[in-house]
Amino acid sequence: MKRSSITTLLIHLHPHAVPRGAVEFSRTFCLGGIAFFLFVILAVTGLLLMMHYLPTTDGAYSSVQDMTFIVPFGFFIRNLHYWAGQMMVAAVLLHMIRVFWHGAYAPPRHMNWLVGVALLVLTLLLDFSGYVLVWDERARYAATIALELPRQVPVVGDMTVRTALGGTAPGEAVLLRFYMWHCAGLPTLLVLLAVLHFWKVRRDGGVRVPL
Fold first, then answer.
1. Measured on CA atoms in the order 18, 19, 23, 28, is the torsion positive or negative?
2. Which residues in the chain come in under a pLDDT of 70?
């Protein structure tokens, strides 16, 4: 009897045995696992920060200041969230370099390499959208640039910006869209692609080791 896709997915996510060479720290540096662990930290600290953040143009910056200097342990939680984000970007970048160095982008792993590139892009977008949420002067300039660059794409650029980011100039709607993408949209996409990534690592025979 042919196994269902879900059964196959679970088997590859949780195999009964893993080759020793595929999990040796000296070869993988555990960078993928470190990146995922940092994402878990970001999710937990992000939920705590959401309880105090106000996604409005008048309240965003002041709420960030309040959670930093007034909320108990807020300074620690916000800094833990910030540095976990920077470390996750570094871990994903180093992971991609290791994969490229060991030739794991070649068939039959080429599709998983593309999934990894998508995960890198999502990680960078999460980091950038979090920067915008501070909504100070620098964050508004960054939001302006983020709104203008996609608009240069012919035909669909302006429509895409208005649909995905709520407008063409920093304001209430744009801030709310950045907030929703940062807290819901991008993390959901990242988790789904991460599950697919882990599954394909197992299905393609484990982690590629040096020749």
1. negative
2. 1-28, 205-211
